[in-house]
């Protein structure tokens, strides 16, 4: 480590939260003109480290050095003033304001809103990121992917010395990730110190100049730039896995997911399509909503035991598709049949009776009620219904018994079934959702971004659950912006583009190219 | 009943509507600022009442209406600073503190008034009136709408100022963010606590000014409990206005007119029991709530104290 060149450095930093040590004796240097990758699973302490650099939290021990001087970063404002810009994992935009208003946020009250200058900067950054967003669109109506793009713009807004990106690629398309990589390189060449947090080793290798690996709050290894440059991708992969897991073989599957390698083996499983389709969707459309892409005449069939992956750039109607299948959104036209029964006009309870299950991408809020206990959330869609409710009176013993069984069976990590679900980690909230939705009576399941924001282990568990459900004869729709995930799970992959199904292709060799072409909307005949 | 459509009756009706509506307008505008910033300011009734008292006392002893209004605003802001300290700084429950403030200052003003004036209710001279040149010459409308105290015109001008402020200044952006996604404001480097504190103090000042107008101009004297729910009507107006000052103005005009109607109908000697007539403004509140309440959109962070690091 070369202390004299570091623009930001942390020295022996320790941060404790009740019950956990989030960071233990962490020392790292962040140099200008360098992309410093922090690798580690959820809970490895990356977010806490970022939180301290961004001024959201203060270290309990140790110090943060800016340009060699020990600095106490007292607030987010202080962090910004020191030239540290951060893109957080959680969306930090005001949903009721427009894109440009969100970007202008942070000025002092006596200043006039400089809209013209802001628009100029907005166009610069749009060009730099290669994205097209309406600056006057209300942020709450943008898709998660677009919101994240706005967040990246906001972090770049003041041309910071240090840019922290907390898993920025999780929402982007392959093209978006490449664009982001180009932006990072340009910024790096301008002398910005970039801190990139990612799960994906491929990205660490592609974008990183220096790689540090965190595990359980500690730095367990670092690959310096000159060493990294001399290594092949294979060597880096092996080295990092060695650092993270100790041995290569013992955790071969973790390593596969981490690297995205070994998944090239496409899912190869014959689906019996001779019988009647379980789910038939015919020319289904939805009402247009300001800022959201509606469905336009979507049709497909889905057979029992089949997994249909829905790919596409975020914001091309995926959310509407999920909601219209779940019965949460009214179809403005077309027909949806389950096992030959027309359910187009049915709401959520009726569809649920027909075996429709929906695992939303908004785990907290739409999927669960954060303030309710784990037990209540496990029966959330059966409130007032026997056997858990008898003549309108809750049978808490039964509800809690049911919860304890589910917690054990699904390995939900919670101190008790009475804990509010909002206090659990994302992975455990997802387990609660899966436990509730995937029971014996399920016949059609819709997953929207099932592994968004989950760590390796929970991603693997969710994938296993989805595949096991398909094996048991469920018809499954998986919506995801992560193409690798769809390649692993799907029998067929459909691509959504501007509310249409641009095409459906069989999963197999060369599918990436076909899907990629469909995603751009250019090639309709690629399938 | 034939007396209803005479010129003096209509003039009195309009004049009364403005007089009754202005305190509601000031309270509503004030509450709107707090609600935008995510603070449900239930204590506004107490702020109005204390503003009415301090405003009256200042005007009574100095003889200056300007000082009276100023003292009213400051009085309201002083009460607001209690809310600011307990709810914003220490994150206590806004509804509980708001109710406590309202009840507390109902009692306190009555007590102070009793010590100061015993059981007498001294009156102020008539408040100075600015007749707008030209406009005030129009029959009925002129004396009804355009011959009022300066505070009336100030309140109406504030509607325009606030509309502009919410839409095209940093104050507007910051208030909106503090109520919708305080963490985003914090991350942008603006203190949520300070933004909300400023909002609550402004609410207090405007509510106090409204109270002082009520005492010094509307009634010309101070009576304990004289605000009679005006602060609560202000809360309703702010909630129904969806962050738009113009809607507060329209609502205040509607309620002002129905309050004025109560008095005017009694004066005109209409043969309806006074109890029924006095119900009118409150029936109006309920009617408006039934019609519009489901359209009211409140900021997601309304009523929630902000703690840095909490997700959301």
Automatic annotation (TrEMBL), chain A:
Pfam families tied to this protein: ABC_tran
Domain ABC transporter: 8-241, 279-523
Alphabetical keyword list: ATP-binding, Nucleotide-binding
Signal peptide segment: none
Superkingdom, natural source: Bacteria
Molecular function via GO: ATP binding
Gene3D superfamilies xref list: P-loop containing nucleotide triphosphate hydrolases (3.40.50.300)
Record-linked CDD domains: ABC_Carb_Monos_I, ABC_Carb_Monos_II
Name assigned to this protein: ABC transporter ATP-binding protein
Organism: Dongia sedimenti
Organism ancestry: Bacteria, Pseudomonadati, Pseudomonadota, Alphaproteobacteria, Rhodospirillales
TrEMBL record, chain B:
Membrane-crossing residue ranges in chain numbering: 6-27, 39-61, 67-88, 95-115, 145-166, 197-215, 221-240, 247-270
Keywords: Cell membrane, Membrane, Transmembrane, Transmembrane helix
Location(s), subcellular: Cell membrane
A Pfam family annotated for this UniProt entry: BPD_transp_2
Membrane topology: Multi-pass membrane protein
InterPro entries, sorted: ABC_transp_permease
CDD domains attached to this UniProt entry: TM_PBP1_transp_TpRbsC_like (cd06580)
Record's protein name: ABC transporter permease
Origin species: Dongia sedimenti
The organism's taxonomic lineage, starting at the top: Bacteria, Pseudomonadati, Pseudomonadota, Alphaproteobacteria, Rhodospirillales
């Amino acid at each position: 480590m070369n202390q004299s060149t570091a623009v930001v450095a942390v020295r022996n930093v320790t941060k404790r939260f009740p019950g956990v040590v989030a960071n233990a004796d962490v020392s790292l240097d962040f140099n200008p003109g360098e992309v410093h990758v922090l690798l580690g699973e959820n809970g490895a302490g990356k977010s806490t480290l970022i939180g301290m650099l961004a001024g959201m939290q203060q270290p309990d021990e140790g110090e943060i050095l800016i340009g060699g001087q020990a600095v106490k970063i007292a607030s987010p404002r202080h962090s910004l003033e020191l030239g540290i810009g951060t893109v957080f994992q959680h969306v930090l935009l005001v949903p009721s304001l427009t894109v440009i208003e969100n970007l202008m946020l942070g000025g002092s009250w006596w200043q006039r809103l400089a809209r013209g200058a802001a628009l100029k900067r907005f166009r610069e950054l749009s060009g730099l990121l290669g994205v097209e967003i309406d600056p006057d669109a209300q942020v709450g109506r943008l898709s998660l992917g677009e919101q994240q793009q706005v967040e990246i713009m906001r972090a770049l807004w003041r041309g910071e010395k240090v840019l922290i990106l907390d898993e920025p690629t999780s929402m982007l398309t392959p093209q978006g990730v490449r664009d982001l990589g180009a932006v990072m390189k340009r910024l790096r060449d301008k002398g910005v110190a970039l801190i990139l947090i990612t799960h994906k080793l491929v990205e660490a290798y592609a974008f990183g100049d220096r790689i540090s690996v965190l595990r359980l709050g500690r730095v367990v290894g670092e690959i310096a730039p000159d060493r990294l440059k001399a290594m092949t991708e294979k060597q880096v992969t092996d080295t990092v896995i060695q650092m993270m897991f100790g041995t290569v073989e013992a955790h071969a599957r973790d390593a596969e997911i981490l690297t995205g390698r070994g998944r090239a083996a496409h899912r190869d499983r014959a689906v019996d399509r001779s019988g009647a389709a379980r789910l038939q969707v015919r020319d289904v459309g939805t009402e247009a909503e300001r800022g959201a892409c509606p469905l336009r005449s979507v049709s497909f069939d889905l057979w029992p035991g089949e997994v249909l992956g829905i790919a596409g750039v975020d914001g091309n109607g995926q959310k509407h598709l999920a909601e219209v299948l779940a019965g949460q959104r009214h179809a403005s036209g077309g027909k949806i049949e389950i096992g030959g029964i027309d359910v187009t006009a049915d709401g959520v309870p009726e569809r649920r009776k027909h075996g429709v299950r929906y695992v939303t991408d908004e785990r907290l809020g739409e999927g669960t009620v954060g303030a309710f206990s784990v037990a209540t959330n496990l029966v959330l869609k059966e409130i007032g219904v026997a056997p858990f409710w008898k003549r309108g009176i809750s049978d808490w013993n039964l509800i809690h018994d049911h919860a304890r069984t589910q917690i054990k069976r699904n390995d939900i990590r919670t101190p008790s079934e009475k804990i509010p679900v909002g206090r659990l980690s994302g992975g455990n909230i997802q387990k609660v959702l899966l436990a509730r939705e995937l029971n014996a009576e399920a016949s059609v399941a819709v997953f929207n971004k099932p592994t968004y924001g989950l760590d390796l282990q929970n991603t693997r568990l969710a994938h296993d659950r989805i595949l096991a459900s398909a094996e048991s004869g469920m018809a499954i729709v998986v919506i995801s912006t992560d193409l690798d995930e769809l390649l692993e799970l799907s029998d067929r992959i459909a691509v959504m583009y501007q509310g249409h199904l641009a095409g459906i292709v069989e999963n197999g060799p060369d599918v990436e190219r076909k899907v990629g072409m469909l995603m751009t909307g250019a090639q309709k005949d690629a399938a | 009943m034939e007396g209803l459509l005479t010129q003096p009756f209509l003039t009195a009706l309009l004049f009364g509507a403005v007089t009754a509506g202005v305190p509601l307008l000031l309270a509503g505008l004030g509450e709107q600022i707090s609600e935008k910033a995510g603070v449900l300011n239930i204590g506004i009734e107490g702020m109005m009442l204390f503003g009415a008292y301090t405003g009256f006392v200042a005007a009574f002893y100095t003889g200056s209406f300007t000082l009276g209004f100023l003292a009213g605003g400051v009085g309201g802001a002083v009460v607001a600073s209690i809310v600011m300290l307990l709810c914003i700084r220490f994150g206590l429950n806004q509804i509980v503190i708001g109710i406590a403030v309202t009840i507390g200052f109902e009692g306190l003003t009555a007590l102070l008034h009793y010590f100061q004036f015993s059981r007498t209710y001294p009156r102020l001279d008539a408040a100075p009136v600015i007749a707008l040149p030209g406009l005030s010459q129009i029959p009925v409308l002129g004396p009804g709408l355009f011959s009022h105290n300066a505070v009336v015109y100030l309140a109406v001008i504030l509607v325009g100022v606030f509309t502009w402020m919410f839409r095209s200044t940093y104050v507007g952006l910051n208030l909106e963010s503090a109520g919708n996604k305080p963490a985003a404001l914090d991350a942008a480097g603006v203190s949520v606590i300070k933004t909300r504190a400023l909002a609550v103090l402004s609410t207090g000042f405007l509510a106090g000014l409204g109270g002082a107008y009520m005492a010094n101009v509307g009634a010309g004297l101070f009576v304990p409990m004289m605000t009679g729910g005006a602060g609560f009507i202000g809360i309703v107006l702010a909630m129904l206005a969806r962050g738009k000052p113009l809607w507060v103005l329209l609502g205040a005009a509607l309620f002002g007119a129905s309050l004025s109607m109560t008095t005017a109908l009694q004066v005109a000697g209409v043969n309806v029991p006074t109890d029924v007539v006095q119900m009118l403004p409150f029936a109006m509140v309920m009617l408006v709530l039934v019609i519009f309440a489901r359209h009211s959109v409140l900021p997601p962070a309304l009523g929630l104290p902000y703690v840095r690091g909490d997700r959301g």
